[in-house]
């Protein structure tokens, strides 16, 4: 944590976190640096149990509220620069945000918001529908996590936890308010927001309400071009927690994200409005509701968590120059029940069992007012039901086999069954999978860690992939005589695939870490953790597009031109290849009362195992990111700089896909006094991309935003 050092309490009950199964940090005022073994960030998502992120036998990154504030973020995409192996390849527009982890994206990445699955996946409509101002913590678990989370966790898990009243209020405060406003120049974005929170004196209940509004325009790119965009976003959150007894907690929350924009139908990359990419009024909506219960009596056998949730994501596009309206809506309804039973066999050994089950349903509806039956091509009306059961053991052993230090072994396995069906389809798909995983970490001394893990993961075919129907695109028949209205057009049609198989992965990872306190001065901490990973991903799903040669060449020796399957003019999702992916990830940090530094280095390589070619769309250049800062005595001032260096990228199959390396630097100043008349204020000033660098993220196909001057002011007070 950058703005002020934290010490994590040594005993952190899962019950405090269970209603929001993401990430939490507990602090004790007055403690700094690495004064104890417990002074580390805590992850919950990685094991469904409060665990030190450093000690976890894998790679997980926790981004807390203070670091989000330091980025003065416009979208969550801004913050992901601090997370290794995680990129956004969709371009600068917020309407196209699509994350990837270790080369995998889309349905291969699970996204949670307060424990609720966010299952909306579209070719170009983005996946994040939450404002950074609502987020208290982000956690990213990299690598297969199907042993706990089932289908979709092939590449990893991204979990956000929204703010709560306890995040704002001290024990002696009954009411709190936070007001904030900000501006950034690169897209003329203005924002204003407010949060109110309250709690009873006996902590039996607390409540919070939040709203943020943003408005922005065209985006100035590093190549001096303007990327047309026009956004207005309103985000809101209501949350209530009731604790009728010391062992029982009930939390209910509802959040809403509503974005109205005017941009091209495909907003990703450098796309601008034009033929086949019409300008649209876009309405993106997210509603997420959660009701959770945690029962944690004075019994090591019971720490019960029940979470029911509903999420609805929808994107409606109303063409500006045409009466056509298209819509895609995905609803997810689910319930999770899990429990932790803790056993202590001796002073030197213990076991935590985490076990439970989950049911959820994803249901999609598509709309296109330009078709006869209002169905939308490639967006079938379909549903998928999932059932999963899982169990995980965490063994903790001191002096294993007489060796010095501590050993942690975490085996786990999950069984999943899924069944998908679509309206007007004669077939369905169903399957079941077992997903085992085992990880181990060994600390011969408290400052040294070695770890490894092995996992199998899977991803069920989405209903879009299995049941795609309708028109994919239209092309002119260049060999047919033009009609009175011009060329004759034919349609390429989607067709379903009843034989589509789940994507599967086999992965292993080894790594090590160092964690030292009192390195330069009393209370400081220096740490580094790195790993090498290798994944084989089988049955990768891709789109097989076929068009008849007769549409381009008139010859009796080629198939004639026409629409649909009768002429071979089709698009179908098929299992196309096996991928071999490997890479290195290293995270590091130093924290003291005066100076801090945190960063990461990552590489990723991969080939198509069938052809031997590089994996297009998966790979990234080697990247180094560093965030440096200094606190200027007790003035409340903090100066910082972030730098990102990416090497030249030449792991391509076509010369035109080579990308130059780039160096981008940001600077920021934060004023947050602890005392005096301005002690309730925080001022953020900064400049992103100070050198106005013109660079491209590999798969985005567009120059990134240029120099961006940012400012924000926040007033917060507890009463």
TrEMBL record:
Domain of life of the organism in this record? Bacteria
Domain TonB-dependent receptor plug, first and last residues per copy: 55-157
Domain TonB-dependent receptor-like beta-barrel stretches: 251-690
The signal sequence is 1-26
**Compartment(s):** Cell outer membrane
Q: Which UniProt keywords apply?
A: Cell outer membrane, Membrane, Receptor, Signal, TonB box, Transmembrane, Transmembrane beta strand, Transport
**PROSITE patterns the record matches:** TONB_DEPENDENT_REC_3
What InterPro entries does the record tag this protein with?
Beta-barrel_TonB, Plug_dom, TonB-dep_rcpt-like, TonB_haem/Hb_rcpt
A Pfam match is Plug
Chief location category: membrane
Stated membrane topology is: Multi-pass membrane protein
For whether the record's keyword set contains Transmembrane, the answer is yes
Family of this protein: Belongs to the TonB-dependent receptor family.
Protein name, entry field = TonB-dependent receptor
